Description:
42% of the residues lie in helices and 26% in strands. By secondary structure, the protein is α+β, with helices and mostly antiparallel strands. It has 2 domains: 17-61, no CATH class; 78-131, 434 Repressor (Amino-terminal Domain). A 3-stranded antiparallel beta sheet has the order 1-2-3.
Amino acid sequence: MKSKPFPWECGECGEVAVRPVRAPYYYAKVKHDNKLHSFTVLNLDIPTCASCGERVFCNSTEVVISAALRRHLGLLTPEQIRSGIAATRQTQSEFSDQTGIAAETISRWVTGTVIQSHAMDKYLRLVFATYIR
């Protein structure tokens, strides 16, 4: 999905002055697995209003922050989950039936909509390891 071109109208002050601003270091705090995690995201482009300073966290910024959280926690990426399932030579539906993980959950993991828990990440790694021998 493509974003509309800048500048955007600011939801806070109403000025058409929102443009991407590169934050060399963005200090994120994200709750995952019922625990608050603090980590740094390098070179994050955050749409920011030049008039009032309001920051707009849109889908593209959230995707970058989620990827940084996965790296920080050492979790499998959506691409790695997709590759692991492919290595089993099963469809996502078949993989769901074999593992007992809801097909909708697997779909959310491989699209990056949801980040898997540490426990499910370990389970996925165990399942994938049985196919890599």
